[in-house]
Specification:
alpha+beta, 6 strands, four-stranded mixed sheet, 42% helix, 165 residues
């Protein structure tokens, strides 16, 4: 009987345990306002990652894709990294002076499902928005698209359709 009860508690604990989805470890993610400032200062695009507490797909992306050393190197070199909790009440200040919450910013970017990845130019203008879990190869392709400037002449789908192996 004790063994059955213990087994039931362990199973219940597995379902009750939330999947944490903080930004990936060992990446220099900053706040949105700081990211906009740094992007203009460094003339780098922004990689904006919308996650949220309990997002299993965010945790999977962090574990399987952002643990790759090539992704770490490419993204820390080529982008100002910004992480926003799409459901957070944490307040932030936009360059305009407007004060909103991270959840408000998530709503403005339609980050109703996470993860959501948004690439912005150094002035904060949206380049491309990409929802859902992505593989290491996906992130390498996105880097080539944005960092290579292909977004200026074609959509992401056109770029990916014409990529060579």
């Amino acid at each position: 009987m004790k063994r059955l009860l213990l087994g039931m508690l362990l199973i219940a604990g597995c379902f009750a345990a939330p999947a944490f989805a903080d930004p990936p470890d060992h990446y220099p993610f900053v706040s949105y306002g700081e990211g906009l400032r740094l992007a203009q200062q460094q003339n780098k695009p922004i990689f904006l990652y919308f996650g949220r507490y309990g997002c299993g797909w965010c945790a999977k992306t962090n574990k399987e894709s952002f643990s790759d050393p090539d992704i770490h190197r490419l993204y820390t070199q080529h982008y100002v990294l910004v992480y926003v909790d799409a459901e957070s009440g944490k307040r932030l200040k936009l360059p305009s002076g407007e004060r909103i919450t991270e959840a408000d910013l998530g709503a403005r970017f339609n980050a109703f499902a996470t993860p959501l990845f948004v690439f912005l130019d150094p002035q904060g203008k949206e380049i491309v928005k990409i929802p859902g879990f992505k593989t290491i190869q996906d992130f390498k392709d996105f880097d080539r698209y944005v960092n290579g400037g292909y977004y200026k002449t074609q959509t992401l789908l056109q770029f990916l359709g014409g990529k060579s192996s």
